[in-house]
Amino acid sequence: MVYTKLARGRYLSSSAVNDIPKGHFSVYVGENNMKRFTIPLSYLEHPSFQTLLNMVEEEFEYTHPMGGLTFPCKEETFIKIIKDIQLEGVW
């Protein structure tokens, strides 16, 4: 499932892989049931997102059976990090 940010706090879901907007990438998030989120590429430069990427790399080496980048954390935690980045308004 894809979650694309429409407006603050709202996400669009879709199961299609080819619906990722230009300038975005997708990640899988969840502890048991993975959900797919579409994230702006600019977030890759944000320190909070880089910290999350480093933690995932150290613990899980970016592996996922479906072949995508996976954040095996609670969905709520991931959404909070994304909202914090959005609130800064720079990214």
Automatic annotation (TrEMBL):
PANTHER family: SAUR-LIKE AUXIN-RESPONSIVE PROTEIN FAMILY-RELATED. InterPro entries: SAUR_fam. Belongs to the ARG7 family. Pfam families: Auxin_inducible. GO terms for biological process: response to auxin. This is Small auxin-up RNA. It comes from Ambrosia artemisiifolia (Common ragweed).
